[in-house]
Each structure stands twice: as structure tokens, then as C-alpha cells.
## 1
Amino acid sequence: MKVAIAQIAPHLGDMEKNLDIHVDLVERAQKNKVNLLIFPELSLTGYTLQDFVPDVALKPDESPIFQRLKQLSEGISLVVGFVEERERGHFFNSAAYLSEGKTLHIHRKVFLPTYGMFEELKFFGQGKNFLTFTSPFGKAGLMICYDFLHYGAGYLLFAGGSEIVIVLSAAPGRGISGKDGWETSHMWELMGESLSRFSTSFIIYANRVGFEDGKSFAGGSFIYNPGGKLLAKASYGDEEFMVTDIDLDEIRSFRKKWPYKRDEKPEIILEALKRVVKTYED
Amino acid sequence: MKINAPFVEKILTKFIKEELSKFHFSRGILGLSGGLDSTVCAFLASKALDPDNVLCLIMPYGDTYGRDIDDAQDVVRFLGIRSKVINIAPMVDSYFKGHPTDNKILIGNKMARERMSILYDHSARESALILGTSNKTELLLGYGTIHGDMACAISPLGDLYKTQIRELAQYMGVPEKILKKAPTAGLWEGQTDEGELGLTYENVDRLLYQMVDKRRTADEVIAEGFKKEMVERVIALVKNSEFKRKLPPIVKISDRTVGHDFLFPYDREK
């Protein structure tokens, strides 16, 4: 199958312009016979929204923008990032998997970074789940940015049977002493390599580029195969439309050789985790 | 502390280009002194923008620093960018005629603000966005004039220490004579930053890097060999200059207040 990552620079708070970018790239993906096209975190709105969050929030069932995106998903799967309004006045940093005119899955970001340069908990409600769902290409799971850096999140998708893990990201680059690009990019690649290998799943990481208030989004989107091999990596800092052929049969071949999934015992982990949590002091 | 210079050049160039285009500017303007930081800024601007769209204002005080003006003009010629020389002596002299002082700092600050005022005027005349030339060392130590040389629209060099700018300058091919010059704020004849601060950039940058970037405590860096007096002095400089890095505090009395809970990004809807 063909996977495309849209390493774009969304316009901050301008959904019309961003929708145009999405529409153009869906057309481009269709011309390239792409089966799955992935956009970065908050691809419809941009990242540093602050008090602008309510103005760009969408209800997937009602929003005309969402209807348009669903129409575009005929014959191609799309993963997009957006601000979701669930109950009135409650907003989430969400990602949706769209296919054949339907919303197959919505993930709400669980780990909202609020430290140093980040302040997401001020503006967003917290998601509660890491659930897998059945995509046209196998069991899949979504994560958003900082979710991916918590290995419990990766474990839950693994335990839930994921074969394809899709990560939408808006990660700013930090550290300029590295040999190649941002020092922080290495951290994402390390997790990509580890999780792909030990969950024997494809890991598809779509990061954005561009600047918002001086933050430079790092790019460096990538795909690892289920054996920890890097299949493709986009540049650090440049917009890119990266199309990669992946072979879904590799999931089977790696799981035959490395039966981590077969031998996993989520029930033991669950009981042990309960005991661990009980030892926590109040 | 070493930087990947080609990558830094790429990111800074992109930043200048993208910020200008977001705000629908095609031109950039900066004050060029003939020193290292403003020269590097001019080099970056000429890479990011069409050279015709980079305007450098060379703003000497009378005939002082004649060599610096020559160096600045060499940079302009070398890069093929635009420049304009404006002598600030008449404005500055006229002010101090009415309000005389011997205090060199007061005179230096007035000069820095005169240059700022001319830059902002030309920013509007030329529809050009002001590129700041302050570096991270100066911002942290507060070694700059508030609303003077610290004023700008965007700051491409604000996260690079002075020694890192020198590294970038070497990579970008900045002329040797500018690289070797002793850094000076040009506040008075013979003034050098290192002389006035009583610190060398090499030392202070290494210290700031440990304390700011690596989050080491004073005790830790002293244990590693930095002199106690120097560490204490640098901490005091950083602490006492916080006001130069912030907008002034607004007393909160309403439900929603600028800066407190009226929070919007600079790049809003850009």
C-alpha cells in the first residue's frame, strides 16, 4: 500500500486556508494512488491557538468542513488533526481517521504537555483512551505528539492489537548542536524505532514544519517497518509530501519471527499495575 | 555549545522569510553597525530575501567610528543590499544641549533610542519589517538599551550566544576584519563590551549555557570551576534585567486583561 505524509505548515487559526491545503494534497495523493494520507497534529488550525481554541473548534457530525473532508475520503483514508468541541464549551486536541465518507475513529490527545514552552492543559480537555480500530489496512491506533513519548500509550495500542500506529505531531525542534538537524528529533526517532520493533507494527509519524511565535516545528516525519527499520524520513524544517510504499505482509513475517505480541500478557500487566498503583502514596 | 552552522543558517533564513511573508512584508530593515551581530543579520537577510529588499541603516554619531562605517559599507557592497547613512549627531546633540550630562550611559542610551526611532520611521516609510540584532548573551545579561537596540519586529539571533554567532559568521563567510573586531555597543570611543562587563564572552557564554540551557545551579557550576564572584555577578545581571525581556506588568482589575488572561499568539491568523 502507499502511505503519504503531508509535512505541512498550517496557517495559525485560518481554517479556510488550511482546508485548501488539505484539498490540494488529497488531490495530489489521489494522483499518486496513495491509500492513506496523514496530516500533522492540529492540521486544520495550527498549534499555538491559546484563547483562539473555541473559535476554531468543530463538531465532526455537524461541521461543513468535516463533511467536506469526509467527502474527500472516498477511495482514500485521511487522518487529520483538529480542535473538537464535544459538549458545549469543552475542547479537545483531536485526530480523526476518515475513510469512505465515514469517521472510523477519533482520538483525543491524552498527554497534554504543560511545561516549559507548552501550555496545552490550559486550553484543552484531556482525552481518556488509547483504542485501536479496524482500518481498511488492518488494526490501527492513533496518538498525538506527546502521547507518543509515553510508552504506556504505545503499550496500550500494542495490547489492543494495533498493526499500524499513526502519530500526528506538532513538535518544535530544540537543540542545534547535533550533526543532523534538531537534537530533539532523535528522541522521536528512537521511540519510532523501539516501538516498531517491539510491537512489530508500522509506525507512521507525521510532524509539521513552519514557525509559530518563534517556535520552529521540526519536521523529520518518518515511517518504520514492524522490524525497526527506517523506511522513509522527511527533511528537518522543509515542507514535504512524502509518499512511501509499505508492505503489510511484513507484519506477519516479523510476528512469525518475533512473537512479542503472541506472548504478551496484558492481564498480568493489568493486575501488576493495580498493585503498583496501590503502593502510591496519596 | 558548538552549533551545526549550516542547519542554523537554514532555520534562521526560513524564519525571516516566513515571518515577513506572514505579515505581508517583502522587505526587511536593520541597523548595521559594522560589528559582528548586525553583519550576520545582514548576511541572513540577504539569503532569505531578494538583496534589493534588504535595507541597512548605517547610523553613525558624527565621524566617530569611521572604520566601522567603512566596514558596514563593505558588507553592503559585498552582499549587494541597499543602505542609507543617517548621522544621528544633530538630533542627539540638540537634545543634550538642552539637557547636558557627562554620564556616558545616558548618552549611549539616547543614541540607541535615536537609532531605534529612525529604524521604526523607515520601517513604515519602506514597508519593511525590522530585524533585531540582539543576541542571547545580551538579552540574558540585559546588556542593551530597552526600547533602543533591543527593539525590533522579529529577532533572528536572539537564541544564539555571542560565541555561537561568531561560529555562524565564520561559516557564512563574514569578512575576517569583522570577525576579529572586539565587540562593542559603540556607546563611546574605545568602549568594548568585554571591558565594560568585566567578563569575556567566551567565559560568560559557557557559564550561561550551563545555567540556562543545561539548567545547572550556581553551586554546581562553581563546583565545576567557574569563579564564585563571576557566577554571582552574572546571576545578578540576569535577575536585574528581567524587565528588559518582558512587557510591563498590567495591574489586573477586570475580568479579562491583556497579558494575563487575554492570550493570543503573535502569529494569530497569519
## 2
Amino acid sequence: MPTIRAASASLRLRSLDARYGLLGALLIAPTVLVFCTVIVYPLVSAIYLGLFSIYTPTMEGEWVGLDNYRRLLASGEFWRSLANNLIWTAGTLTLQIVFGILVALMLHRNLVFRALARSLVLFPYFLSTVVAVLVWRWLFNDLYGVLNHLLLWAGIVDLPVDWLGSMPNAMISLIFVGAWKYFPFVVIAVLARLQAIPDELYEAASIDGAGAWARFTDVTLPQLRDVLIVVVLLRTIWDFKEFDLIYLLTGGGPIIGTQTLPLMVYKEAFALNQMGGASATAVLMMLIMLLFMSLYLSRARD
Amino acid sequence: MSTPARIARRFLFNVLAWAVVLVIAFPLLWMLLTSVKPSSELFVIPPRLLPGEITFEHYRRLLTETPFLTYLRNSAWLAAGTTLVVISIATLGAHSLVRFSYPGRERLARLVLFTYLLPSVVLIIPLYLLMAGLGLANTLTSLIIAYTTFALPYALWLLRSFMKAIPDDLESAALVDGANRMQAFVDVILPQALPGIISTAMFTAILAWNEYFYALVLVNNDAARPLTTGVINMLVTSFNIEWSLLMAASVMMSLPLIVVFAFLQRYLTRGFSAGAIKG
Amino acid sequence: MSGIRFENVSKRFGGVTAVDDLSLEIGSGEFVSILGPSGCGKTTLLRMLAGLERPTGGTISIGDRVVNELAPAQRNIAMVFQTYALYPHMTVAGNIEYPLRKRRVAKDERVRRVREAAAVLELEALLDRKPRELSGGQQQRVALGRALVRDPAVFLLDEPLSNLDAKLRTHMRAELIRLHRRIGRTMVYVTHDQLEAMTMSQRIAVLRDGRLQQFAPPRDIYARPGNDFVAGFIGTPSMNFLDGRLKGTGSGRTFRSGDLSLPLGMLPLTDEMPEPDRRVRLGIRPEHIHFDRQGEPARVNLVEPTGHETILVFDYRGNELVARMDGDIAIEAGDTVKLAFRAEKMRLFAAADGRRLNDDSTA
């Protein structure tokens, strides 16, 4: 106690800016504390654990150095999961962007009950992934699912489709459900940007003789460029680390047909009880993501 | 100029656009319809769009015959607890990041953004061990702690943008008028930031309400299970899957979101520009 | 009792110097304007005085107290911001009352003083409104009221009129002068508008790039500008400058620029010319140019009649020259006329540092 009082007494003598700085540090201190315990410590710990071979139930393990990484890079499963991860990310991201832009352009125009349309379109994004997956599993149901009936009735298929249990159907289904769940994010971003484009730009383009398509490519797209770059980076990061949707919809199956890296980490840690290997996988995955994260961080440097 | 051709084009666009909207919204519509159909109508081939009769039987069973209410209560506690903890810490933190200067401030702000992008699977193993070590395994507390890993960076980032929009002159005026920095914060900054704080709180509550992964790993008994893992548990443990029951649960889970969503509509774009709504 | 003193005050933001080794002494009860183009450091200077920024070097005193490390609340100052900075969630009364609440003034005393300030500024009818329901002029008065209510030793005003329309600005200028007379407090008024500075202040401090150029009463600033920057900055249209050399000595002294030669015999110089053939700038205000048969020929390039006067732009031996003449003058672009300058109004500046060279105590 005396030392604290002495410290505060000496602080009273220090400059106003120093006192302000101290107050600022005090206000951010809880944040820093929480960050250190629940983010920085686990992050460092994960990197450290990746150097051990640990059996989960007993938590006993030995130092294996970089063996986990060597084993991973030599394993087919890692590369398969990474490939799945990339296919899933690229596929669902492409659909999200394309649908997102189209629907945003649609909602930007004068539509009856536009506010309602907007809400209906955006809502899937706010839904729990659990709900989204339940609904889609019901739609995908092989016997009573609406989707199969629709396709049978329309004569597009002759037999019910096994949406989630076979390849490549499972991956395609995943990509579509992912697109349905996450494209509203693109809509929100693009819509906000569209509303900020001044009408004069379109009027000027019209006067210069630009048709509807030319107005889109020469005015709209360049204006959307910046926001789309940010959206693509963010969605790449988020889609890449997606766990819930894939785990709940296919569980990574059939076999490891749709297993991405986050699912592999989970399986190794909590099904195969290999905490060390799982940590190594997670760290590798983060290293891959760092590329996109640093790209985004450098862009977000407002 | 509204020539007949123009009117026809407009009409066509509206029909087309609404068709697209309805296709997008169909899964949700189907969820709602399934939840009020009698079980007997569920397995009619071909499926009927509108229910022959409307029943709330599934909702009744959900609330009385399943642990749904326990899950609901857990989820409510989780959302409220996470939001309270995160918003209190983040409001102070954001104020500090926006209006104070000290060494390392910019680096800290970037760290916030970085952690906001961090994958949960990297943190989960050490967190799992940490909770076990602290004796918090299978408790709501462990989940609240885990949820701060994504909710705190998110709330900080969002609040930072809201607070940046408050003019510096307001705080300066309060200081000149005789307030110290904390009084200026309470008297002037907080009231101005309130709408931003409320909307950030709601976004945070949604994140906690919808979270699945940490709940899956950290909680393994019904007493502390939230809705997300709880409802999935109902799916995996049941002998034959009762879709109407699950759809009723889905509707119930989504109801609070609809209320919050309606309130948040006008903050959506703001939430986006702040470094985006998390997903 | 509450003069203000800046002693060698500097302020650097990173690598940018906003205020550079500035010294200035403002008398108690004086109305002083800090005038300069945007980015000259005038707002920084005011914010340092208010305690919202800390100087990197030097000392600032209010009265006999060094205030460098005092929080704004401890300085007994009030400030009116360019943006008004009214608290949006408080009513007009709440805004005006806020400084009193922070100083723990008793409730009935607060009510009395708010009513008093409101009466002075004619805000009585608006006391229950929120700031966003007020017009710009009304918001401005509330901001003034918030400053006034506390009876501080020093008033700081940061471009308080710049967001008002022209008519209201003229009105508020008069109001502020009246207010200053009434309360007799020290007022420091930052502006980029020379008209405001010239009409309102007892003294003007002209700033450029964070450096003090001149600190003098308005009339002196205009008639005896300390250097060519002040000379060019004050007055519309600006003073004309001709670059040339000084030849000869004593009464035979002349200004030469190309083949132009002007006798300067009657201009007393502040210092003896150390080097011969010195490079100088000759300055002449537009109103000090007149037609003269013995003058130099000039071609009229542009005629801008404004009604009560006519602004003429000449080509004067390759230099552009702006003159202000009577409103009813009959002249057209393309005409050639002969021009002369009022000799005692010419100002001579050193080309090297812009310093004024002629002493015009006779003028």
C-alpha cells in the first residue's frame, strides 16, 4: 500500500500528458488482461503444444520437436483436407460474390416492398448455423426432402439424389448452403456502397452515351472495387476457417471427402486424442491464413 | 415517361426480383411451415406447400417433453453474460483507443483486428486445457470466457468506429467547461455513444446466442448446454429424427434474432463499415 | 489581472512543426485576434492556451500562473468552438448550466446565472430546446452563453463566426464587440478572416507557418506591415509587389526594375544599405495608385466595376498591377494610361527575408 501511495504521489508531479496516458492505459488494461489470458496465452500455448506428442485423456506427452509437422506434411490426409479447404473456400466465395452483387443490384432498384425483400434476403446471415443446417438437412432429406421432390417432379432427375452422403454431391451441397448463408454479407456491403455512388456519375455517363451495360462496367464496378476487395479478403478468411457449417452438414464425410483443416484439427484433438498433432495442424492452418490476414490488415490501415 | 412498354418492364422486374427473394427465403418459410404441420402431413408424397391444418403440438412437446427450456435458459444467460462482460470492457477500451495516446496504442488496435480474424480452432485446445485446469469444464462461465475471444475484439472494433464518429470538440468542450477526463467520458461521450453501444451489445448477443464450436468442445452435459449444441443433441440422440420438432426448435431459436434484427436494420451498414459484421 | 504570455512556445506533431518558437504577450482585458491562413498554427496556439494540447517547448502563462501542465478545467478559461460543440443530448439550459455544475455551483445560483446569460443573448425562449432544433445563429449564441455563464478570466474563440451566413456574421461581430466592452475580459479570437480581425480586435497577431509575423493594432498592421507576407495578406485586393534593386543613396535613391525607374528620395530607410545594388520588393496598395500625366504608361487588362469602386488590372511594364479607382471611372480594357504611386505610401521590403526597410513615421 505505501508503495502505491508513493507512486501516485510521484505521478501527481508528472506532466498532464503522462497522467492522461496513464488513465488511457488504465482504461485499456482490462482489455489487455483478457487478451493475454484468452487469446495470447492460448495462441502461444498452441504453438508450444504442437511440439509435443500428447495423449488427450491423460495429458501426458513428450517433446517431439518438429516431428508433428514432418508427419503432417507427409500425410495424405493433411493435403486432402487442405485441398478440400481450398475448394470449399473458392467455390462458396465465388457464389457469394456473384449472388451478392446481383441481389444487391436488384435490391438497389425500385422494388415494391423493398424493405421486406431486403430483410428476407439478409436474414439467413443472422441465423444460427445450427438452424441453417437443420433446415437444409430437412430440405436435402433423401425420402421426404422438398428438393428431391421438386427435381423428380420437374423431370430433372429420375432417382432421388443423395445430397450429402456421396461425392461430389456433398461438396457441392456444402458450397451452396455456405453461399446461401453468407452471401447477405456481400449484399450489405455492396448495397451500402451502391447507395453512396452519386447519381451525377450515371447522368454524366448517360450523356456521354453509355448504355445500361456500359454504365455498369464503367461506373458501378469501379466504384465497387475497393469494397469488393475488402469483402473478398474478409470472406476468404472466414470461409477458410469455417467449422460449424461443414461439421454439422456433412461432418467432413463421406469419409474425409469434405473434411477441411478445422475439422481435421477437431477430429485429431477430440476424436483421436492427439492434442499435439492437432495443435500442429491448427498452427499450420493459421500460417496459411496469415497470408490473407496480413493482406486484410494492410488494407484496413485506414 | 411511362409508356406501356416501360410499365411492362417494371412489372416484369418486380415479378422476377420477388421470385428471387422468395427462393432465397424459401428454406426459412419451409422451416416455419413444417413446424406447424401435423406429423402425418410431413411424409405425404408429394409434399404439400401449405399445411392442411395448423398445429402447435410440436411447440408444446418441445417445451414440455424435451430439455429445450433448459437450453434456452442457458443460451439466454450466455448471451446476457457475454454481452455484459464484453461491452463493459470494450466500452472503456474503445474510449481509450480513440481518445488517449500512449505508446503501443496503434499496435494494440491492430492486434485487436488481428485477433478478430483468428480461427477458433487454434485457440480451442489450450482453452480446453485451461478450463479443465481451472475446474470450469462444463460450466456456462467457461463458455462466457471462451466467447470473449471473438466477442471482445469484435465489440472493440465496432465501438471504436462508433466512438471515432463522436467529434473531438465535444470532449474538448467538456474539459474546458470544467470536467476531468472521466467526467467528460461519463457526461458527454457515453450519452453520445449510447446508440452505438446498444447496437454493438445486440450484435454481440447474437454472436453468443449463435455460437456452436466452443459449446461443442467445452460443455458436455445438459445442465450447461446452450441451444445450439442442445438442439443438435436432440437430433443425434433421437431414435428417429422428428423434423417437425426440430423445425419448431429452429423457429424458437430464431425468434429473438428477428426482434433484434428488426431493431438493428439501420445499423447494418454501419456495422459493416466498422470492419464488418462477423460471420 | 489576467494577461496571457507565450514564451518561446513550440509545438511539433511528429515531424511537423505547428507552432515555432513563438513569443507573445496579451494584456489583461485586451481583445486580440490571431490571424493567418489555414494551417498557420493559430488553432493549435489556442488549443495550447486552453490546455487541450501540450506545448513541446516554452511556457504559457495566464495571469501570473504558468499553465503548461494544468488541465483545462484548472485554467479558468472558457472557449467557443468553431463547431460550437454543443452537447447534443442536453437542452440549451443544460448546455449553459454544464460548466456551473462541474464547478459545483449551488442549484438556485445556477438557475439564476443561466437565466442571466440567456437574457444577455436573447435565448430565454429556447432554453428547453435541444441543440439540433436550433438555427446556426442560435447554436452560436448558446455556445457563447456556455462560455459567458461562468465569468472566466479569459475567453478563447476559435473561428466562432465562420459557420454563419454573411449577414449574421456582421451582426454577431457587433455583438461580440459589445460583449467585450461589457465584461472587459481578455479575449483571444482565432480567425482567418482579416475583416473580422481588423474590425474587432485591439491588436492582431499575424501567424504564418507557426511563426509570429507581426503583433500590432489593426491600423499598424495595415499601414506598417512588418514584412511582405503581412503586407500581402492584409487588404483586398492585395498589395502589389514589384521586384527590383535599390540604386543610389540619400535623396538620389531610386528603385529599378528592368527599365522602370522610380525615385525614392523621400522614403526614410530603417537601416543604412550595407550592400550596394540591394535586391528589394516595392509594395504599393491598390488604392495608392492614381492616374498621372507624368507617370509610367500601363495597359488596362481587365476592368471589374463593383459599383462603388472599380478594380483595374494593368500590365505595368510586364508586371501585373491591381488598382482601386472610383466607381464611375470611364475606362476600357485595352486602353493605355499613365500611372503613378503615392510616394509616401510605398513600402520597401528586403528581398532576402521580406523585412520592411522604410521607416514611415512621416506617413
